[in-house]
Write a structure and sequence with these properties.
This protein is an alpha+beta fold. It has one domain. 40% of the residues lie in helices and 23% in strands. It is built from two helices and three strands. The chain has a three-stranded antiparallel sheet. Strand 2 and strand 3 form a beta hairpin. 6% of the residues are buried.
């Protein structure tokens, strides 16, 4: 599976980063995705579908 940053998803969906961040926080709590720190940019978060999502 491929990791994607929340900023890249916001640009693709044209949804404000704050709204995407809140949405993905809720989806993470439900266990559908993994959300983690970006390797080189401490401000960015990577999201990735897990086996359930």
């Amino acid at each position: 599976m491929q990791e994607v940053t929340l900023i890249a998803l916001s640009a693709h969906t044209r949804i404000a980063p704050l709204h995407n961040s809140n949405y993905f926080e809720n989806v993470t709590k439900k266990g559908l995705i993994k959300r983690q720190e970006h390797e080189t940019d401490t401000r960015a978060k990577n999201v990735e579908l897990n086996e359930i999502g």
